[in-house]
Amino acid sequence: MTQSIINTEIKPFSATAYHNGDFVSVTEQDLLGKWSVVFFYPADFTFVCPTELGDMADHYEKLQSMGVEVYSVSTDTHFTHKAWHDSSDTIGKIQYPMIGDPTGTITRNFGVMIEEDGLALRGTFVINPEGVIKVAEVHDLGIGRSAAELVRKIQAAQYVATHDGEVCPAAWQPGEDTLAPSLDLVGKI
């Protein structure tokens, strides 16, 4: 990413996802009106990927209770997602849409395509209900992500979105003190 994607609107896309036993169409319009996570990973039937997608599945109910939908994306097809879902206990517990991006359009839209391999980096993007990217995190292929930490980041993003003039300090958890940036705070933290 040569330019920050933070505070930009998601770009148009149209894709097919495997979701709850069906193939469904997904576009950028489906991400509007609620908080969304777009969760890129390199490929189905690999090693770190199932641990991440399983971890996300374990946190999915919590994310849903927060009004968040999760969309996993790889450059595999939706058919491959179904085959993986049907053959792996870990992937079989996934209830969120698994988007196939064989053309790489969505992966390129978010700036996480590894062109020489045709695969995605491990990219996590939190999108607000207006379709604006509020969190962007990209990992190298060998570094797995934590859904628990993602939940905390979304809680902070949702808090900031509804509390004008307040910001969340490092490691903030719901119910803890926030900060109201002002001249009085300069040099006191």
TrEMBL record:
<comment type="similarity">
    <text>Belongs to the peroxiredoxin family. AhpC/Prx1 subfamily.</text>
</comment>
<dbReference type="InterPro" id="IPR000866">
    <property type="entry name" value="AhpC/TSA"/>
</dbReference>
<dbReference type="InterPro" id="IPR013766">
    <property type="entry name" value="Thioredoxin_domain"/>
</dbReference>
<keyword id="KW-1015">Disulfide bond</keyword>
<keyword id="KW-0676">Redox-active center</keyword>
<dbReference type="InterPro" id="IPR036249">
    <property type="entry name" value="Thioredoxin-like_sf"/>
</dbReference>
<dbReference type="InterPro" id="IPR019479">
    <property type="entry name" value="Peroxiredoxin_C"/>
</dbReference>
<keyword id="KW-0963">Cytoplasm</keyword>
<keyword id="KW-0049">Antioxidant</keyword>
<comment type="function">
    <text>Thiol-specific peroxidase that catalyzes the reduction of hydrogen peroxide and organic hydroperoxides to water and alcohols, respectively. Plays a role in cell protection against oxidative stress by detoxifying peroxides.</text>
</comment>
<keyword id="KW-0575">Peroxidase</keyword>
<dbReference type="InterPro" id="IPR024706">
    <property type="entry name" value="Peroxiredoxin_AhpC-typ"/>
</dbReference>
<keyword id="KW-0560">Oxidoreductase</keyword>
<protein>
    <recommendedName>
        <fullName>Alkyl hydroperoxide reductase C</fullName>
        <ecNumber>1.11.1.26</ecNumber>
    </recommendedName>
</protein>
<dbReference type="Pfam" id="PF00578">
    <property type="entry name" value="AhpC-TSA"/>
</dbReference>
<feature type="domain" description="Thioredoxin">
    <location>
        <begin position="4"/>
        <end position="159"/>
    </location>
</feature>
<comment type="subunit">
    <text>Homodimer; disulfide-linked, upon oxidation. 5 homodimers assemble to form a ring-like decamer.</text>
</comment>
<dbReference type="Pfam" id="PF10417">
    <property type="entry name" value="1-cysPrx_C"/>
</dbReference>
<dbReference type="InterPro" id="IPR050217">
    <property type="entry name" value="Peroxiredoxin"/>
</dbReference>
<dbReference type="InterPro" id="IPR017559">
    <property type="entry name" value="AhpC"/>
</dbReference>
